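FIELD: query
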Amino acid sequence: MQKRKLLALAAATVWTASAAPAWAQSMQADKPAGQQAVADTAERTPAAAPAEKEQHAADAAAASHDHHLGDTVVTATRRMKRDLDVPAATMIITGEAIRESGASDAAEALAKVNGFTYKSFGANGASMGTMVNELSVRGFKSGTLVLLNGNPISWRGKYNLDQIPADSIERIEVVKGAGSVLYGSDAMSGIVNIITKKGAENTVHAGFGNFGQREYGVRIGDKRFSAYYNSDKWGHQNDVAESDVRASGLKGSMRTDLRDAEKTSAGLTYRFNSHLDFLFGYYETEATYLRFIDRVDQTAYGVHAGDPYHVRHYTTQQYITQLNYHDRKWKGSLYFNTGTVGAKGRTDINSKTGQKTPGGWYETRERNQTYGAKLQRTWKLSPKSTAVLGLDMEHETYASLLAPSTANAARYMRNNWGAFGQWEQKFTARDTGIIGVRETWTTAAARDENYHNFSASGQWLHKLDRENSLYLSASQSFIMPTFAQMYGESSRHAPAPDLRPQTGVTYELGWKARHAGHTWKAALFHMRVKDNITPHWVGARAEYQYTNEDFRNTGLELSCETQGRHGFSWNWGLTWQNPETRAKGADWERTFGKLQLTGGVLYKKGKWSSALNASYLASRVQSPLHDPTYPCRPYLLTSWSTAYHPDARSEIRLTVDNVLDRADVTSHTGANYRVAPTSWMLSCNYVF
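FIELD: result
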């Protein structure tokens, strides 16, 4: 209750601060501009001086001219607004920018975004079952809500970003900071909304590279319909990871090799009219990981270096279906997501005892399903006042399927409900306040483990001029524990049915400006989370279990994008932060890295284009489940892509990842999962 009162006071303070200039002046009604987008960005007052009227008219014309996909954000406020008019740290990655970077899917497009910490468990998206590749925003693990066309696609708090091919993406909107008031659980540190194209050209592509890489695909369509099929293969990679062995009768380390990673994605979209569209997507992966004992410090069973530890063949199948409606006032959607994850293979050494197990076999399977509906209504009450109200419902199920290593199959379900509202008020031509509230609750949960949460937010935007703005925000957030965290069980995972939801609050002060081809952004933020859900090692049982702890982070973000002359454009970003966690009865320990530098340069001339991108994360630590944190080497992720267009229909592209051939570790929890050595892909794309 105390935190709720404090946040309500903070929201009221922001609201009052934004209102103060308005009460100091005699407010007069504004004339609405001709278009909705212009009305949101430029208004005229009857009492304005002639010069001011002319400036407002010029601004309105500029808004109408400049209001295109690269400048607008929908995700941050659930309404289309110019990026500079949004009181949040935002970023728009256009489909053209994704194509020019050489990224083949959404995961690669986001891997080097400023403020994002990237983690991978294998090449070509070949994650180890539920150990999927992840994006952490502002040093906070599992606090990023991933949306596809505004609908959630995560399963058990995870997502497969590599299932969304780059050529199907219209743009990606990134919003950093708490977003639970508008979007519910999981939006604690950021939101990624991947917006797909609603039509397509007829194209075919094929490529090959080292490490046994092969790719090919086809897309057909027109302005209303598109369908695609892609297949990607990665043959082999040794020494993918090195991790500790902590069994009761065996201490040491093991290494992991990767074999035959394959992924297939297919889908279709259909646009019935300008308001209604349909999407279906299918995704399948499989990969084999072989683990061997690499070092023996202690053994009670005669284990030697080089002995096999186990073999695991991982498979993933996922389906996504959406029906989306939108007009100027209403937005609605129906969605259904289902995914099955499995792991099976030979077990040579028992993970708990360290004893050799000739003929041992391991197999687990689980299925996650969600289906839901969302409805939103926007009221333009006056030229100065806008209200948004919405409802959402989601039915969630988790099933641990019967398998040799899952003797007791189980199924859990719950209904997630939410109601939210947002009020936006223009007090002057320069000052705007936004306040929002959400109530979330669950029903029909197992063991009556139902939750409810009330969240509130307050935002204030002050326009210094049309291309220069300041903002202030305070927002609450929450994350409900997943079924897998509470009830999931494996050879090394113990259930934790009494987990509490995570709750947090984020405060942010920001600045945005655009001038002479430069777009500048800065944000100072402080984030505090109570009951952060984190796995901890239980040494006596040689297994891990999820528990609640605390998290905090204070940081500064700076970025700049520049459209240069003579074919050059570039961008850079800097994030300094201090993410820390604290378990019960323990001291604060730092997690992730303190300093991140990102940058990229693009050159285009005639039929050629070339892009180089990099992300550097320094002052890092590893946070193992069973030991205190310890410093680790910075990582430097690099990619270079060059394309040649012989004609308007053809493209030949060479993409190189890990240009400097660094053996960097991108995991942050003690197991050393390394990026692949320098890899290249030569591909050809043809429009027919």
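FIELD: remark
The helical segments are 2-24, 36-39, 50-66, 95-101, 106-110, 180-183, 483-487.
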